[in-house]
Amino acid sequence: MAHIDYYLGTISTWSYLAGDRLEQIAAQHDATITYKPIDLMQLFPRTGGLAPAERHESRLDYRMQEIKRWRDRLGMEMNLRPAHFPVNMAPSSYAIIAAQEAGGGDIGALVRGFLRAVWAEDRDISDDEVIRDVLSASGFDPALTDKGLFVGAEQYGRNLEDAVAAGVFGSPFYIVRETGEKFWGQDRLDMLAEHLSGL
Known about the structure:
The protein is an alpha+beta fold and 199 residues long. 53% of the residues lie in helices and 10% in strands. The protein has helices at 13-17, 21-28, 40-46, 57-74, 90-102, 107-119, 128-137, 144-147, 149-166, 189-197, and strands spanning 3-8, 32-37, 173-176, 182-184. The chain has a 4-stranded mixed β-sheet.
């Protein structure tokens, strides 16, 4: 059985556009997933990148064109200028980590719920009430918002170090543990599926 480490930022445009395709691919190939939320604003400078706000205007212009193209191709609802972007990723990331540890709900739906809250619902995913609501909607105990704070904070820091050590530099980033193969971007999901077919 293959295992995929999925590194993501809970405000990542491209993780949102990935939708549930990773989960579909994993189900088709009997693979498991570990969700590893990371602080992208710390990852970028440590791996030679820049936060979007610091990028050259030409890159920002092209990024917006690409977002529109992918949004339309995938038929996804999306606010191109969300009300709460960027926002502190730590609280929602802690919730994902705590929920993954606790079990009992749909972790993929939780991750997508936070991403959708940013990109389609104009909600602030650093707000405790929003976090509780997304946890509950995904089948998790909303009290994890508070109960999971300590374990979430510790693992969030470790996830960043793991990401840097593993060669991760963006989101979404998928690594197949058995082979070490890396796939950066939602537009590489088909290649991930092809790779899993060969295992």
